[in-house]
Amino acid sequence: MPAHQPGRKRWRLPMNWLGLLPFLLFSLLFLILPTMHIVIGAFQTRDGSFTLQNIRDLNTGTIPSSYWISIKISFASAVLGCLIGFGMAAAVTFGAVPKWIRAPLLTFSGVASNFAGVPLAFAFLATLGPAGLVTLWLRSEFGIVLQRDLGFNLLSFWGLTITYLFFQIPLMILIIAPALEGLKREWREAASILGASGFQYWRMVAFPILFPSLLGTLALLFANAFGAVATAIALTGSALNIVPIQLYAQIRGDVLGNPHLGYAMAFGMIVVTAAANVLYIWLRARSERWLK
């Protein structure tokens, strides 16, 4: 009898991967392909030929200053978001506030961290804008004019920074709360047995362990603010010279616009946010190794 020759194995997609297909398709259509289109367009002329001029033009006009302002706003909102969010997360994690507040706070943080764009801009304009609720209340009840007496203008550096804090603080709470919960009680007890005070425990044990996670979260919050386009455009319009505003002016198709220069500006934003996210992932991995 002839020897049995097994047929070639057919390649089959595991059934547990089928659930990922919608996500992969969505990522391909709305993330990967648009990103590749931007990257390719940044190195093309209007007729489609290759050029580096668009990248060189990033150092001309007001583009460098717009990047610098965007970096400062992103850094300021990231630092403030980290400080305030860490304090709130530590309060609910270590019992400084009633336990029943924890669940509503985390639920609100999950919603607020994704609340951005036109709705967020409208909410702040209706609250702290020139005719906002708080602005009119301070003027009528206390005679305080925000811009004249306090120098505060919502359509300014600090105005946009405060607006970004609405989603920066909740994002910080969501990320740092699990890291705080990972601090083992045995470490605190061991430090106390050895005579360490609470301040010494945090300075010499807790903060060194949490530092990679804190620094990584700072990088993530920076990237989150730097890439926030819709909120900045809806809130400030052309009042603040930041990268998203100039990018929008370049690609919207007016006479002075240069879409490929806009692609180059978007490419620069991709590079900055990608670097921040890579730093976050690396530091997060180091922090998780310690907490395990």
UniProtKB/TrEMBL annotation:
The lineage of its organism: Bacteria, Pseudomonadati, Pseudomonadota, Alphaproteobacteria, Rhodobacterales. Keywords: Cell membrane, Membrane, Transmembrane, Transmembrane helix, Transport. Residues 67-282 form the ABC transmembrane type-1 domain. InterPro entries: MetI-like, MetI-like_sf. GO terms for biological process: transmembrane transport. Belongs to the binding-protein-dependent transport system permease family. CysTW subfamily. It is found in: Cell membrane. It comes from Cereibacter changlensis JA139. This is Acriflavin resistance protein. The keyword Oxidoreductase does not apply. The chain crosses the membrane at residues 65-94, 115-137, 157-180, 201-222, 228-249, 261-283. It is a multi-pass membrane protein. CDD domains: TM_PBP2 (cd06261). Its main location: membrane. One of its GO terms (cellular component) is plasma membrane.
